[in-house]
Amino acid sequence: MTDLPPPAYDESELFELAPSAAEALAAELPYSVRFTLRGEITPLQQAFLDRTGYLVFDRVASTEEVDTILAEVERVEAKLIEEETRTLFGVPIWFGRNPDGKRWLQRMGFTSVLSEYLSGFVKHDRFEPVRRLIGDDARIGEREKDGVVFNRYVNAEGSLRPNLAWHTDALRDVFYNRRMPGPMLNVGLHFDRITPQDGCLIVLPGMHTQSAWSTLFSKIHFVTDKPDPNEVKVETWPGDLTVHDGRMWHRVQTSPHTGWKSLRRSMYVPYVVDAYAPKDEHTKTNLYMRLFDWIIRRKTRRMEKWLLAG
Ligand SMILES: O=C(O)CCC(=O)C(=O)O
Ligand SMILES: [Fe+2]
After folding, report:
1. CATH number of the domain to which 201 belongs
2. pLDDT attached to residue 238
3. Which of 65-74, 161-170, 207-216, 301-310 is modeled with the greatest confidence?
């Protein structure tokens, strides 16, 4: 049984708020505020996003949708294992071991290309205001960048990914586009009940407007893992949707639990405004991905050795 979240912030009287009033109110809201996704992004939601660099929307996917997506990912995982697929459209697929010692998908790109259900889900009308938030001409890049990315984290012996150290998502775009990105929003769906004490998503509010230098160098991407005095832990319930500015530093902390109790799953949907650049089975793995794939695989080999010895 998952507990229920506190009610989302009541905006029923606030839809016509002037930007200055919205800005003032956003400054008073707690970082833990949860919003309702409606047909339009409200002035208060826009002001909170502008101020902090992120938004949490209360359970945008139903329990049934959450369960169906998770089952689809298991189906895709079984197919990838059976066919020994190691990359999809040039993006490496990372497998570790689950707490039962079985080969287990930990990160894959282009998930929706292998699932008709998922492909339909990410294009559902309810996400239209999120798309417009990114840009009137934004599109869902199911075959661009890394496509729809599915992540699984677990704190267990064979896990490749109990956590994800501090990073900005801007770095990847620097590699992809060879320039600093402008405002970039990452849209994530969350599948587990994660309290601030668990292995949750952690952000540095307000850091989306930092200088390019600070974006790239104020911490070491994917290495620095120390808590930051200004960090905010994002609490989620299954079906929650988060939007975060990819220029902001963020991380996923290791769960204090081990085994299945430490499980966390997230899915990121790419909204793209750049020139259309689809990938396919002929796309080569780029330098950024080769580097991280190398690090991850080195970790895997060590793990496999350790498991064989143990
Ligand atoms: O799992 C998450 O919520 C965050 C993932 C993330 O930041 C990333 O893949 O860049
Ligand atoms: Fe990220």
Report:
1. 2.60.120.620
2. 98
3. 65-74
pLDDT of residue 224: 86
What are the pLDDT digits (tens) for 14-72? 999 999 999 999 999 999 999 999 999 999 999 999 999 999 999 999 999 999 999 99
What is the CA(252)–ligand 1 centre distance, in A? 7
Please list every protein residue whose CB sits less than 6 Å from any atom of ligand 1. 151, 164, 169, 188, 201, 250, 252, 266
For residue 146, give its domain range: 29-309
pTM of this prediction? 0.93
Q: Which of 266, 289, 292 to mutate to test the pocket of ligand 1 (most atoms within 8 A of CB)?
A: 266
Ion ligand 2 — residues with CB < 5 Å: 169
Number of domain units in the chain: 1
11 assigned to some structural domain: no
Residue 184 CA to ligand 1 center (angstroms) comes to 14
- Domain assignment present for 7: no
Residue 132 falls within a domain, yes or no?
yes
Q: What is the 3-state secondary structure (H, E, C) of the chain?
A: CCCCCCCCCCCCCCCCCCHHHHHHHHHHCCCCCCECCCCCCCHHHHHHHHHHCEEEECCCCCHHHHHHHHHHHHHHHHHHHHCCCCEECCEECEEEECCCCCEEEEEECCHHHHCHHHHHHHCCHHHHHHHHHHCCCCEECCCCCCCCEEEEEEECCCCCCCCEEEECCHHHHHHHHCCCCCCCEEEEEECCCECCCCCCEEECCCHHHCCHHHHHHCCCCCCCCCCCCCCEEECECCCCEEEEECCCCEEECCCCCCEEEEEEEEEEECEECCCCCCCCCCCCCCHHHHHHHHHHHHHHHHHHHHHHHC
Ligand 1 atom with minimal separation from the 266 CA? 1
